[in-house]
Amino acid sequence: MNKHVPKVGLVQLGCPKNLVDSERILTQLRAEGYKIAPGYDDADVVIVNTCGFLDSAKAESLAAIGEAMQENGRVIVTGCYGVEKDVITSAHPGVLAVTGVVFLVVGARMPRSDALTVQPMAGPTVMGAVLSGRF
Description:
- By secondary structure, the chain is of the alpha/beta class.
- The chain contains 3 helices and 8 strands.
- The strands form 2 sheets. A 5-stranded parallel β-sheet has the order 2-1-3-4-5, with helices on both faces. Strands 6-7-8 form a 3-stranded antiparallel β-sheet.
- β1 (7-12), α1 and β2 (35-36) form a beta-alpha-beta unit.
- The radius of gyration is 14 Å and the shape is globular.
- The protein starts with 6 loop residues before the first strand and ends with a strand.
- The model is unreliable at 103-115 and 117-135 (pLDDT under 50).
């Protein structure tokens, strides 16, 4: 039986630390058997790794989230701007989840192999989300 392997796209914004976080996310997704999509059209879900350090970075993050929503419609927001969930969901109410800085753990061994679990790395303002079967 051919089982659908979800494809995940990633938009990376911000500083070198964010780049490292994005690489960790991609590495974990690949290790768990997920495919990485080269563009919005091929992705089952898009992760936008945001920056919230400067006002201009926040504006760029909101624009990137908007583009991902328009092009794909299934978006998970992470990164340092994710701590401002209310701002993000006010601008883009359709996002699947908003977290702070996270490390993704993909549930390849969960009952549904397409379940995606977002686990917080650290900090009281980081929220986790479980997205099971949404894509």
